[in-house]
Amino acid sequence: MSLDQLWNGWRTQYVGQGTADASDDSQSVFTRILNLQMSDEETHIVHRSAHSFVILNAYPYSSGHLLVLPFREVAHLEELEPEESLDLWQNVTHATVALKKSHTPDALNVGINLGAAAGGSIARHLHVHVVPRWNGDSNFMTSVADTRTIPEPLSLTASKVRAAWPKGDQ
C-alpha cells in the first residue's frame, strides 16, 4: 500500500529553503537545522530550553504535530545526561499543555520510536512525538485515498503553539 500525495503549494517555501546538503550524513537533519543561520520562525522551532528544543514536524500527522529533542544528538534514552532527560520530559509536558491550549484537541498521542526497526525514521537523534488528535480526525482522504490533509500552514501552527507555551519556562 502506498501513500498518495496531496499538493500543498504553501509548503514550497519550506521545501525550497532546504536544511543542508542532503548527502551530508555526518549529522541528523535536526542537528543540521540547529546549525542553520536561520531564525526559529524560519525553521519552525517553537521553543528552546537549556538542553532541548521543540520543533514542528515538517510532515505532520495532524496540525500541531510537535517533536521534542535534546540538542545533543543521541540515539537512546540511556545516553542522555540526567539534566538532559529532565529537560526533555519537561518540554514534552509543556508541549502537551501548549497544544491543548492552542489547538483544543480531543486527545494527544505522545510517543517515541527508538531505533530504525521501531519505526524511527531519524533513529540517530531521538525525538518524542506529541500529536494532537480529534474525534473523527480520520477523514475520507485518509480512509479512501491514504492521504492526509493539514488545514493550516506550519507558520500559523508555530505561532499558535508559541503563544500558548507555558509562561515562566524560558
TrEMBL record:
InterPro entries: AP-4-A_phosphorylase, FHIT, HIT-like, HIT-like_sf
GO molecular function annotations of the record: catalytic activity; nucleotide binding
One Pfam family from the record: HIT
Entry's transmembrane regions: none
Domain HIT: residue ranges: 29-140
Coiled coil: none
Keywords (A to Z) from UniProt: Nucleotide-binding
Name of the protein described by the UniProt record: Unannotated protein
